[in-house]
Amino acid sequence: MTESANPEQREYWNGPDSQEWVEDAERYDAMLAPYGETVLDAAALTSGERVLDVGCGNGATTLEAAARVGDGDGEAVGFDISAPMLEVARSRASERGIANARFTLGDAQTDALGGPYDVAISRFGIMFFSDPAAAFANVRSALLPGGRAALLCWRPMLENEWVIVPTAAAIEHVPPPEPPPPDAPGPFRFAEKGSLAAALTAAGFVDVTSDAVDGPMLLGGPGSFDDAYDFLKGNGITRRVLGDAPDEAKTRALSAMRDALLPFRTDAGVRMNGAMWLVRGRA
Ligand SMILES: C[S@@+](CC[C@H](N)C(=O)[O-])C[C@H]1O[C@@H](n2cnc3c(N)ncnc32)[C@H](O)[C@@H]1O
Fold first, then answer.
1. Share of the chain above pLDDT 90, in %
2. Greater model confidence, 180 or 82
3. Torsion of CA 149, 154, 155, 160, to 10 degrees
4. Which residue lies with its CA nearest to atom 15 of ligand 1?
5. Helix axes 60-69 and 83-95, enclosed angle (nearest 10)
6. How many Å lie between the centroid of ligand 1 and the Cα of residue 121?
7. What's the whole-model pTM score?
8. What per-residue confidence (pLDDT) applies to 182?
9. How much distance in Å is there from the Cα of 1 to the middle of ligand 1?
10. pLDDT at residue 61 above 90?
């Protein structure tokens, strides 16, 4: 990997603050699995195609893409800035005997992505670039002419029950976190309607469409109510909301967050809505 254009993101995704993505890889994947289906179905993969998964993390969508393109010439390449997450992805591929998935460490904004690919996909791996136009131009140049992109990002926090319900409960007890500066990399970087589509268009993609998608998720995957609460407690968004409030305020905030989940309890787990943009385009 060359000098990263995103040093803070590289540090974050390789450091202790994102360790829960590695430790809780199975839970994240179980929780996000329906949204992986959304991206992969939108990509309409066919046998023999080559797929680039941008910000593939632990590789769940890369491995599923590899299965969908078959094991003739079809191949899926997961590209990510996080060495520990790619380690999970590689061991999953070898444990499952998936030979047509590969993983490459690098910054998708600046590093060569390999290719040419027929399709680029991403499930929440494209919101962390300091220069999205440069990053999407890099992705576009790795695609064959006419190659497809299918990308998923979050809509605003207020539309995402899984964030706003616990956050609203917490800030009765701790000061609300400072909103991130506009356009700062982060999970809600492209929340505003049309912003991801505009970034793709600026990078030279054509026929760009943007669809609002809503779908339920089980917080932390299937399990008991306490499993879901444990997942919530250890989550980066919760850490940010609790900030450096005094311990006693944090305890009250956590208890309020737990209570706020109760109406969403089901036999399968804590079911809450996720609100996303599905953005498609062609190189
Ligand atoms: C929210 S996680 C999503 C991971 C995965 N797509 C999934 O759905 O489980 C965001 C991912 O983007 C990766 N990422 C962030 N900035 C990146 C960059 N500049 N280049 C490549 N990957 C990046 C992170 O390392 C992380 O794996």
1. 92
2. 82
3. 150
4. 128
5. 40
6. 12
7. 0.96
8. 80
9. 15
10. yes
Indicate the domain borders of the chain.
Answer: 7-159+181-219+273-282
**Cα–Cα distance between 149 and 133 in angstroms, integer?**
15
Strands 143-154 and 271-282, how do they pair? Answer: antiparallel
CA of 240 from ligand 1 middle (Å) equals 19
In this structure, the number of other CB atoms found within 10 A of the CB of residue 226 comes to 10
Closest-CA residue, ligand 1 atom 26, reads: 57
Radius of gyration of the chain (CA): 19
138 lines ligand 1 (CB under 6 A): no
Largest interatomic CA distance in the chain: 59
Residue pLDDT, tens place only, 194-236: 999 999 999 999 999 999 999 999 999 999 999 999 999 988 8
Q: Which atom of ligand 1 is nearest to the CA of 126?
A: 12
Going by CATH, does the domain composed of 7-159+181-219+273-282 fall within 3.30.300.10? no
The reported pLDDT for the residue numbered 2 is 56
Which atom of ligand 1 approaches the CA of 32 most closely?
8
Query: Which atom belonging to ligand 1 lies closest to the Cα atom of 122?
Result: 6
Whole-number pLDDT of residue 35: 98
